[in-house]
Amino acid sequence: MGTEKRTTQEWQKLDSAHYLHPFTDFKGLAKKGSRIIEKANGIYLWDADGNKILDGMAGLWCVNMGYGRQELVDAATAQLEQLPYYNSFFQTSHPPAIRLSTLLAEVSPEHINQVFFTGSGSESNDTVIRMIRRYWQLKGQAGRQTIISRVNAYHGSTIGGATLGGMKGMHDQLGLTIPGVVHIDQPYWFGYQGDLDIDAFGLEVAQGLENKILELGAENVAAFIGEPVQGAGGVIIPPKTYWPEIQRICDKYGILLVADEVITGFGRLGEWFGSQYFGIKPDLIPFAKGVTSGYLPLGGVLVGDRVADVLNSDGGEFTHGFTYSGHPACCAVAIKNIELLRDEGVIEQVKNVTAPHFAKRMAELADHPLVGEVRTIGLMGAIELVKNKETKELFTPKGDVGFICRNACFANGLVMRSVGDTMITAPPLVITVEQIDELVALARKCLDVTAEQVL
Ligand code: PXG
């Protein structure tokens, strides 16, 4: 397939005839035709017309080690030759899954020593629901059923993941979500209209958790779930007061804390996990994406000792699992990927060099006439596009300008995603200082092109 040559138009024709894309208006796309990406190396993509594009989204927040790492290809190939598939049901296991679980226990926070494998972030969050309910049944408190999540959260697209998530458009299409999930506010400082300062705002939003627990009755509440930094929702970076207060409230009422680290895991914030950045101690950490740098699909749930001790007690079988839980080739790639992250000092480089440079250079974009706010954390960034820089008046209808900007980016050799009118970027973790300069220069050019059309 890598060598099959067709023109862009030929690919587009076949694409719209046969391929239903995720999160896509099928009719709209068929009219326009897809962008066909043919190859990649480092932090760059090439489309079928030979255009070079800086991938400011690391694929879909996942290609942490960048493209073209032969070690990952070799790890997959060797494992496919040795043992391409075997399951871990029915009391069997295999070296790649055992070695990966051991390595994950090493790199994850101290109170985490066990892992359940899945094939994706969505499956990981479905597993979270199953594990939480199982935990409270085994504890003899089966009444603790309700999981508290947040508006504008993204936890995946299975029915469980979409229910946990707080995306209105998804809930509307889903119809009946699963019972026992409620949503509280998100800590979105830029969108806040009130009088509090940022730290007081963080505390107030966290207080929403306590209010909800008291409203429901703590004896009915099982867990709180949140992304350390909301990714798909628009890189929502919480005030520094937020997470410690959430931890305090979870502890006070004995409810489980779940940090969805599908995006923030494996170095994105300059720590192995985002919860380490924020100093919290989650009981469960669903992960996926960066664990394999996206080279093969793998996800899982890191299980803290508090939950693991109960799951490992006399309760009989946990009736949950997937054919591809602990897939040998995916585990082999994850092992090599984690070794590369560790042995090449990639995460320290993010923390000490590239994230500070990214923060400094991105902040310079705040002077642009179209920009209302720039925020960054680790190698995640967001640029809020506004109609009026002084008053921070937003564009209506929301999303059109973001879409124009996204297209301008693609046309000028940069992938940035738009969430409404928020432009977001999360480049591969191996991006260099010079490449960050290139990303920011491209972003400025794309903002200029957009401003010419909309201001
Ligand atoms: N949790 C979080 C925090 C995620 O970001 C998932 C769970 C689900 O993972 P899977 O592997 O099932 O897709 C995600 C995925 C976007 C975008 O447009 C983000 C995701 C997926 C697709 C698109 O930002 N995040």
Structure description:
The chain has 455 residues and is an alpha/beta fold. It has 2 domains: 35-68 and 345-454, Aspartate Aminotransferase, domain 1 (Alpha-Beta Complex); 71-341, 3-Layer(aba) Sandwich (Aspartate Aminotransferase, domain 2), CATH 3.40.640. Helix content is 42%, strand content 16%. It contains 16 helices and 15 strands. Strands 1-2-3-13 form a 4-stranded mixed β-sheet. The protein has a 4-stranded parallel β-sheet with strand order 6-5-7-8, sandwiched between helices. Helix 4 (70-82) packs antiparallel against helix 13 (328-343) and helix 9 (198-216) packs parallel to helix 10 (242-253). Bound molecules: 3-[O-phosphonopyridoxyl]--amino-benzoic acid. 3-[O-phosphonopyridoxyl]--amino-benzoic acid binds next to helix 6.
Defining traits:
455 residues, 4-stranded parallel sheet, 4-stranded mixed sheet, binds 3-[O-phosphonopyridoxyl]--amino-benzoic acid, globular, 2 domains, alpha/beta
